[in-house]
Amino acid sequence: MNTRVTVTIPENFALPAELMLASGFTAGSEMECVFEQGQICLRVPSARVSAARQLFGMGRHLSAGRDVVAELVTERASDG
User: Fold this and answer.
1) For residue 34, what are the β-bridge partners?
2) Cα–Cα distance for residue pair 53/4, rounded to 1 Å
3) Which of 6, 28, 53, 56 would you call most buried, defined as having the most Cβ atoms within 10 angstroms of its Cβ?
4) Distance CA 46, CA 51 (A)
5) SS3 of residue 36 by DSSP
6) Strands 39-43 and 32-36, sheet pairing
7) Confidence (pTM)
8) Confidence class of residue 37 from pLDDT cuts 50, 70 and 90?
9) Contact predicate 23/44, CB 8 Å
10) Domain boundaries in the chain?
11) Alpha helices in the chain (DSSP H)
């Protein structure tokens, strides 16, 4: 499928509805933009990549100021 889009303001353009439907993009979707050999490619990240990005660092606030590695080592040592 080939189509043209127009950049309306810097860093902004609209994807035609048929491309949105075909790609699975919805409002707020994350896409990967790659510039290769003079062409811009838009890619839909896999569901696993998107899920991993959302999970990355989620528990950091729970371990602030704690040495969780030392706690695990101590716990394993006491388990014998």
Assistant:
1) 41
2) 31
3) 53
4) 9
5) strand
6) antiparallel
7) 0.43
8) very high
9) yes
10) 7-79
11) 17-23, 47-55, 68-79
